[in-house]
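INFO  loader      accepted 1 record
INFO  loader      residues=187
INFO  predictor   begin
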Amino acid sequence: MNRLTMNICMTAILLGGALAARAAGASEPAAAVPAPVAAVASVDTGMQALKDEVLDLNRELFMLEEELLFPANTQVAVFVSMDVGEFFALDSVQLKIDDKPISNYLYTEREVQALLRGGVHRLYLGNLKTGEHELTAVFTGQGPHARDYRRGATLKVEKGVGAKFVELRISDRQSAQQPEFMVREWE
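INFO  predictor   done
INFO  writer      dumping tokens
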């Protein structure tokens, strides 16, 4: 039996004994009833402390898992961002590295609104060997005049030692009244 179960059982026994004594007409001292209340309060305090410890442990395990699965020397992360969005309504993004599909993401209306307010979405986090790689992103959505729009952007990246961060940026080109898709490395 764990400690919590034992505390609950003891509280039930104390409460049961106090109720039986009261029913039998026995007089009880004034301090007899608060003991079960104090036991319940200590159980609540213990539960809260245990919950806090579990949350801390979970946070530490998540960070350790990230470090083990995606070591900094082979890590590559790809992010999506939008600017204005007047000429393009994003539906989905498909990401390929060296012609291998690694991520397909379908955006909800709320996610698109978050991107338009300046949010950044991590589309992909993974490992990549050192050397030259070709990253291709295909954007699908509604373009000018409510027409279906599918455009791609490509970037050759040189993966060296250390993490590599790439941004897929969708912006409006006012002069041509068309969306513009850029792929660039973050320094």
